[in-house]
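Anyone? Bumping this.
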Amino acid sequence: MVGYLLKKNKVISILYLIFLLLFFTQNVYRVLGDESEAVSSISHAEDSLKAAYLSVLEAERAGVDISEVVVLLNNAFTYFSEAERALKSGQHDTAVQLAGKAAEVSNAVLEANINLIFVAGHVEEEAFRNQLFLSSALVCLVVMFGFLGWRRFKVYYVSRVMDVRPEVVVDES
Amino acid sequence: MSLDDWHLVFVSVCLVIILAAFAPVVMAFLPSRDEHFFALAILGEEGIAEHYYPDDDPNIEVGEDVHWTIYLLNHMGEIQYIALKVKLLNSTMIAPNSTSFTPSSAPVVYEVKRVMLNNETRFFPFSWTISNVAQNGDLIDIRSLSVNGETVDTHSSALLGSDYRVVIELWVYNENLKEFRFGWVDGNEMRCAWNQIWFTLRYVEAS
């Protein structure tokens, strides 16, 4: 009887240990899984932020007014910093959520910029073409009116010179 | 004036007008000659370059709040993606090197990243408190800091708590290398900006 009870207790202990092991392993995997998901979300958000920044830089170089877009981008940075802080403090779900928001805003900035760069590229090209046309037209006018003006001035100058030419008078006295 | 002199005046005036007409087109191809730089400074409690410590005493105690503002100006000619890294050093730890553009190897206790417009000035609030300290003989080890309300673990020990310093480094995102670098490139030259403020930890172990 005593042997039976000891055997039974042993079996229960082993089962309990197996249960504890499974429970612990499952929780460890869950925590590790959450953490790795948060880390990967943050890494993805960081890549999106960098891409968005480069697109804003390109847009600025194309002549787009980027002041409003930079405000949006900095909002994304705030989400990103909060996500990093949440990860450090072990709030993995919050970190994933905030990193997602940062990536979302960054992607919106990136998309908006692609359109703006396309438009700005055309506007800039057109402005340059207009400037070139205006400058060329002005040069043509200057050459043409300069030439005509010079001719008129030359005639005027010669006539003035002829007018002031001293008259030779024969003194017959 | 003779006709030849008038001719010269006419031609000169025409040439000047032609050059003026083409100036905007030529300007579009000329590179900018502006000097590009960042300006970094640490300001005291009232946003001016004084009153850095409570009662102007750089001997601070555990739990004492220190309020600074980090001033940064972007005059790089275009937007910049920057990171301000704050580090806690003792007197023997190597500070950033402005000649070799090497940052301090001390761990970062606080970091802020922002995109700044050209000619934009930003003021970053930076409030910190020493929150946890351990003493080992004459060595005092700062175990944690509270920076802008966030607790950060750190390990920096100094003899009798003297000659600690807070170092602020400016890192700039390099679009070619696709990473943050300590410093930036202006033309063919490399430049960097960092700043430090010293303090002493006044610590009396509770008996």
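Late reply, but here is one note on the structure posted above: The mean pLDDT of chain B is 89.
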